[in-house]
Amino acid sequence: MSPVLQKPEIEARVVRKVARRLIPFLGLAYFVNYLDRTNIGLAKLTMSAELGLTETMFGLASGLFFIGYLLFEVPSNLALHRFGARRWIARIMLTWGIIAAAMAFVPNVGSLYGLRMLLGIAEAGFFPGVLLYLTLWFPRAYRVRLMGLFLLALPVSSALGAPLSSAIIQYWDGLFGLSGWRVMFLIEGIPAVLLAVVTWFYLTDRPSQATWLDEDEKVWLTRELESEASESGSHGSVRRALTDSRVWMLGLVYFGITYGLYSLSFFLPSIVAGFKKTFATDFSLFTTGLIVAVPFAVGAVAMVLWSRHSDRTGERIWHVAVPTLIGAVSIPVALYMQSPLTTMIAVTVNAVGVFCALPVFWYLPSTFLTGAGAAAGIAVVNSVGNLSGFGAPYVTGWLFDATGNSRAGLWVVGAVMLVAVMLVLILRSRVSATRSTEDAETRVVTASR
Length: 449
Fold this sequence. Notes:
By secondary structure, the protein is an all-alpha fold. It is built from 20 helices and no strands. GO terms for molecular function: transmembrane transporter activity.
């Protein structure tokens, strides 16, 4: 068989084999990661009374995670590049699992603040490290769809985690002599420790080391990825990545997208609980968890379909801008709905916008970053963006305490997401250097299916 005819066959075979090996496992790890990061939102429903938390104090406790996360993000990702994903991701998972479980024993708000910051330090580097890791295994034309499958763990962790966490809080209250929210932290921290051990033996750092690939498959994948890096004009310098204006602009765009994400993740349980006062309803903790799960479940389905559409068309910028705009408009609309159902419909539209934008957004850094430059650049983008993880819960909580309702905080969410739309459109011409190459690759992949 000639090389021209052979390439599509080996390409499809290798990508399928690598995807089946890596995506489900990394998705499971991210599921646990995001659950341990955001389960404080459901813990708040009973934890606040026990620890004496105001809305502002809860927002600060939620947001302090991201201060530790920010400080250690770039060093952690550079360490992953140096020591290898297998060792470093296992280390991250072990430490965050231990700290997440230790939150079951906080005696006061000061201890809660401290452990939330330590949790951020422990988790630093996991998400951008996995994104970097995926660029070492998948050709560019496949990345949006496969990143979408990996990022599917994010809405799924909330869709499944919300009812799971609320059920533990409600039905296991008193287990081991602990309050329900303490039992939840303890039980949900253990899986990360167990996965750390599995990670050490399961992951492979690079294609050339993969004993589960045939020799011709390893050679083809290694050459294909090296060829893409050399043809795209990508750079691998840490210094150039840290001084590249595109990196910092992408960080600001990501800030806007995730501002909506973290507002939902941390405060949606409180908004649903607030229906009791607004609409004279009364939901149990478990029912609240089920209601909270709905926007994330719908967002998960939309994320997969949208990322596939982006790969089929080869278009990226508008696939980020349009859903972000939908999210920006829909969240303030939710404030003026007249029933729990219509409010949740508007919130669900917001969730769809946020989750559709994410996988396509994370394609953009790989168009001009490789190697150590990619490690540093992706970490910077994630660090700047995740400042919203501090700002969103703290500002939303402070505005809730100041005004007595969630309206002002959610108007801010819409405004910040709207700024992200404008920034991504400004950025359009600056991230398109490899557009013609990308479109050609996408057409080849689509034609070979």
